[in-house]
Amino acid sequence: MTTTTPPERVESDVAYLVPNSSADVLLYFHPTMKEVAQRLGDNVLELQSQQGNVGRLRKQLDVRDDIRWETFKDGFPNLFIENAEIIKSRDVIFLANFFPSQLIFEQLAVLYMLPKYMAKSLTIVLPYFPTATMERVDDEGQIPTAVTLAHMLSAVPPTRGGPPQVVVYDIHTLQERFYFADSVLPRLETAIPLLQQRLRATFGAELETDVVVIFPDDGASKRFAKRLQDFHCLTCSKKRQGDQRVVWLAEDESLEGKHAVIVDDLVQTGGTLKSCARFIHSRNPASVSAYVTHAVFPQASWKGIVECGIFKHFWYTDTCPETAKQLAGVAPFELISFTPHLAGLLYDFDLAVS
Known about the structure:
The protein is about 25% helix and about 25% strand.
């Protein structure tokens, strides 16, 4: 039997591997989400410290680093949950990462077992739903893999307290919540409040008069326009002419001297964002920046953003943790961690004593 070397432990204020945990809520995670889990635990502790005994009582959260993620010689997972007996009658949160796709099977194996250890409840936090852009069939023969992944998650067994919850951030299309069976409860959340905070911190008094939020297509506008209705928003339109993307503004407004911020849910190769940025740059703005919740960037395609040389700021969250590690310290990329927002959601809902 061969084993994978576990990631190096990062020091944190959160306690780990307490065999007989006194906490009401246990947070497990995939190894790729270890640093995210530690930040989340620290954010929850910070909230508890700030709030004290104000309002409703809160349950204690214990971040658990005791799942052995190993492999057999044939490459299939060899998994083991240390101290599994502590799961009984406790609320469980699992911080998942399904990108790249090779990680899905081993995590589903764990998720399918957690309810069988008599967990009181199960909340699956899957910040990035990776097949979300394959959500429809335009031509006969296409396979909407978003439906497939939703069905796989829907097969997670119920707990003593009811169906598992699946928390997803900025899913590509809202109708994908209906791809899940009634056996699970999808919770669709957004990281846009984090962007709003960053825009206010970056532009200050200029925000109301000199900042323009630009959506690269109608899809992005439908997803985010209502959430950004306090900002001046415009939408790009585009069409293909041969191998070229032709981009224009649906609203013919001057961008001269404005700070343009392109907003979308995710970026893959960056082709759409770069085409939109080049068009905006030709309109003489003061600056061009961008925000995406999910910085996917397969095969290091983020290098094209750097080479483009147009973006002043490129904000992204750590929903794709391996990409976030690659982008650390690389201009113009700037991380906005989603964990403070998630901590707030957990604090107000999952950790509240009913």
